[in-house]
Automatic annotation (TrEMBL):
UniProt cross-references to InterPro entries, sorted A to Z: Phage_Baseplate_Hub
Residues forming coiled coils: none
Name used for this protein in its record: Phage protein D
PANTHER family linked to this entry: FELS-2 PROPHAGE PROTEIN
SUPFAM superfamilies attached to this UniProt entry: Phage tail proteins
Amino acid sequence: MEAAMMDSRIQDVATPVFELAYNGQSITADIARYALNISYTDHLSGESDELEVELEDSDGRWLNGWYPDKGATLDFKLGYRGAALAALGSFDIDEVEYSAPPSVVRIRALATGVQHPLRTRQGQAYDKLTLQDLAQRIARRNGMTLQGKIDGVDIDRLTQYHETDLAFLQRVASHYGYICKVIDNNRKLVFWKRGDLIDSASVKRFTPADLISWRARDQLSQVPSAVEVSYHDPNKRALQTARAAADARAPGGKASSADVVKLTRKSGGKLQAELQAKAEMEKRQLARTSMFITVDGAPQLAAGRNVDLAGFGKLSGRYLIEQARHRLSRQEGYLCELELKRAAPADKGAA
């Protein structure tokens, strides 16, 4: 069973539809007429994916028999009638909010993959292993399958400081230029190399005429001239420094500030420190130019994918989706609100 929420702008072209299941049982037909807004937010890293369902409740059923049970789950699918719907995941209900008048209930749920064992804080030390070994160990401990290519990164020693497994792994992965995320209902732990995402092909191309709204932020003075990571060299018994300079060919272009970012980490040696300096510079260059756009909804607009923006002058280029909010509403239909970071400037003459 599927439910449609139609936008007058596109109702003669495509009808957006959704499916919602509660504890594995479809409730789409039961709630469709009460649904005001449904939004799904897909984060590339650092935060839990979220589902929020807003429903009218004039007869008070959500205060009584329909009040969600503790530990209940929601499964959500979204797309257009006549095409296969995208399964966007399973979510644990985290919060119920009620307001009146008018009587409205808002149900907020977090991706199942970051619940339960992954949320348990613990302290532990790890010695003489690779990033791949660490990811595999944490995946197995939480009953998940590890996916993605991880280059050989040797790590002498790491300490998990009363952190959750996921927060700890995301922190370490970020130091070496990787992004990791739990997907597929807590079954898969996926690693991506940030550089590979930046270089991947775009799934959509937009011009200003294609956008419902947009705004841009270009932090002209935010790209440092270099990043330095200090590390202890046991052979020389002294503090050494690895350095990564701004790359004019990278997303943020040449340095826009004379500042040097200095970090001190337990890197384990020269190679590890060099990798960390390079990863930090890559992250800072990527963060320079941001776009926030609203477009007609499309399930393939997911965090970690790229889109091309053309016709925006010096802001044109290939952009990485850092956050995608898919919003279905009674008034506006299916829209996507995207937070983008520029992965590459437009080819010369293509702006």
